[in-house]
Design brief:
Blueprint: E1 2-5, H1 14-20, E2 21-25, H2 33-37, E3 61-62, E4 73-78, E5 81-87, H3 95-102, E6 113-115, E7 137-142, E8 146-151
Antiparallel strand pairs: 1-2, 1-6, 2-3, 4-5, 4-7, 7-8
Helix pairs in contact: 1-3
Length: about 150
């Protein structure tokens, strides 16, 4: 689930944070695990920063059309096989809390996006591990928000 900011906000209260959310979209962060795990410091940023990574969209569902962003089914298919099936109620932090928290250290601007997290079932955690390969197709659907489908290049 991707949160889309609709107004400039800094040092938000919880109520202000909720009002600053314009809408929601579908995102696929994609992760080059070899860059995340095999580099000094085991940092995550570069492993999510390659060209073609982090597609999102293709739509933004306005916040008013999503009565409870904490109760949405979220599924991911890899080449037609369901590999993740969860619900946004499993998120550690709510979308409004993320906006409130982040606004304490940075000014959030209209159009900024916040990726909320990844449901259980990532390939690295399967036995045996399953890695995305060139030519794979990934489809992610969030109830009430939309569907994102993209090829792995």
């Amino acid at each position: 689930l991707v949160v889309v900011i609709g107004q400039r906000i800094k040092h938000a209260s919880s109520g202000q944070a909720e009002q600053a959310i314009f809408g929601y979209s579908v995102g696929h962060d994609v992760s080059a695990r070899d860059w995340q795990k095999g580099k000094p410091g085991n940092q995550w940023l570069l492993g999510k920063s390659f060209d073609t990574f982090a597609p999102l969209g293709p739509v933004i569902a306005v916040a008013s059309s999503i009565p409870d962003p904490g109760q949405l089914r979220i599924r991911c298919w890899l080449n037609g096989e369901v590999v993740q099936d969860s619900n946004t109620r499993e998120l550690i932090f709510s979308p409004s809390y993320l906006v409130e928290y982040l606004s304490q250290v940075m000014t959030l601007e209209p159009g900024d996006v916040i990726a909320t997290g990844t449901p259980a079932g990532v390939g690295m955690a399967t036995d045996p591990p399953r890695w995305l390969r060139r030519g794979d197709r990934v489809r992610i659907e969030i109830e009430g928000v939309g569907v994102l489908e993209n090829p792995v290049r």
